[in-house]
UniProtKB/TrEMBL annotation:
It comes from Mycena chlorophos (Agaric fungus). One of its GO terms (molecular function) is zinc ion binding. This is Enoyl reductase (ER) domain-containing protein. GO terms for cellular component: mitochondrion. InterPro entries: ADH-like_C, ADH-like_N, ER, GroES-like_sf, NAD(P)-bd_dom_sf, Quin_OxRdtase/zeta-crystal_CS, Zn-ADH-like_protein. PANTHER family: QUINONE OXIDOREDUCTASE-LIKE PROTEIN 2, SHORT-CHAIN DEHYDROGENASE/REDUCTASE. Gene3D superfamilies: Medium-chain alcohol dehydrogenases, catalytic domain, NAD(P)-binding Rossmann-like Domain.
Length: 333
């Protein structure tokens, strides 16, 4: 089968598609799934070069988040052949995967495989951050940095659906337009402009934002516009360095600094996962939250390197996705 395999550690721009990768053989309890679409993640670029904290023995297939159709399920499984699912696995950039049933969720007909391809990690990260960790309340102001990015766009859409007043911050006018039009942000600010925090203070009537959602690693900058008793979420470090936040600011501003590590929930709180996925799918089904935003160019396995390059150079918005198999029916959302 076709697979985007890493045979030696190198930049993805040097990877060529393997057309004779061995078919996966599911273990006794595993599902065999035809992959229709998979989501691109920044850590793919690091993993291909051996620069990510999770290292796989060579050779391995790249990619994690995917959506597809169950081809084979063990007897007595909660899944059956033909079920539409989305999930996470090592080696999602391939025509088929063998996956543990605990790492997939059933996908409603209303969502396309492309929309769901980047949902399994991205959306619960933003949902659990906002709801479980920062306890975002309706009517509160929520500032999202890198608001046009994968987790950022999901945070904008979810915060809006949860009734917050959302301020999306991004690095170009084109991205700000997307955050407003597609993400539904109430306000947008260009965080490359000096003194952008004053604009946020003005928007909030001088109060500041109640919740900061930061996947960039710019918490200290954002604290200039946080409200009394605000909560600042440490989500990631897309800018490349791990920030050291002055703790006197946490004291003086009477705020909380809150972490989110979604990947660890599968190990530490596996029983919580189905609740989070159900609540996300309920919000999408109710129409309170708009469907996941997919980047305008859909890649193929043959052009995947171009997609990873676009991601690396900040050229994408929402979720960049690779289509591996065409969907037979049209999604309704
Ligand atoms: N905590 C968790 O459980 C969890 C889960 C998933 C992801 N994450 C983390 O969240 C972060 C964002 O992931 P993502 O999938 O949303 O990435 P993404 O789609 O690539 O978006 C990242 C955005 O960050 C902004 N950015 C600012 N400075 C940057 C720089 N120096 N280099 C590159 N981008 C920069 C860019 O937007 P502008 O052009 O608008 O500035 C870029 O589009 C990553 O660090 C990831 O590891 C954390």
């Amino acid at each position: 089968m076709k697979a985007y395999a890493v045979k030696e550690l190198q930049h993805p721009s040097k990877i060529t598609l393997t057309t004779d990768w061995p078919e996966p053989v599911p273990k006794k309890d595993q599902l065999l799934v035809d992959v229709y679409a998979a989501g691109l993640n920044y850590y793919d670029i690091l993993q291909a070069q051996g620069k990510y904290q999770i290292k796989h023995p060579l050779p391995f297939v790249l990619g994690t988040e995917f959506a597809g159709v169950v081809r084979k399920a063990p007897a007595g499984s909660a899944f059956k052949a033909g079920d539409r699912v989305f999930g996470a696995v090592t080696g999602a950039y391939a025509e088929r995967v063998a996956v543990d049933p605990g790492a997939v969720t059933k996908l409603p007909e209303t969502l396309s495989f492309e929309q769901a391809a980047g949902m399994y990690v991205t959306w619960p990260t933003s949902y659990e951050a906002l709801v479980g960790r920062a306890k975002l309340q309706p009517g509160e102001f929520c500032l999202v940095t890198a608001a046009a990015g994968g987790v950022g766009m999901a945070a904008v859409q979810l915060a809006k659906g949860l009734g917050a007043k959302v301020i999306g911050a991004a690095g170009s006018q084109a991205k700000l337009d997307i955050v407003k039009k597609r993400g539904g942000a109430d306000y947008v600010v260009d965080y490359t402009t000096k003194g952008w925090q004053q604009e946020v203070m003005k928007i909030t009537g001088g109060k500041g934002v109640d919740v900061i959602y930061d996947p960039v690693g710019m918490i200290t900058d954002c604290l200039k516009c946080i409200a009394w008793k605000g909560r600042a979420l440490v989500v990631g470090f897309a800018a490349g360095s791990i920030e050291k936040v002055p703790t006197n600011l946490i004291l003086l501003k009477n705020i909380s600094l809150v972490g989110i590590f979604w990947g660890a929930y599968a190990i530490r709180e596996p029983a919580h996962l189905p609740t989070v996925y159900r609540e996300i799918l309920d919000l999408l089904a109710s129409g309170r939250v708009s469907a996941p935003v997919v980047y305008e160019r859909i890649y193929s396995l043959e052009t995947l390197s171009e997609g990873l390059h676009a991601l690396e150079t900040r050229g994408t918005y929402g979720k960049a996705v690779v289509r591996i198999k065409a969907e037979p029916t049209k999604a309704k959302l």
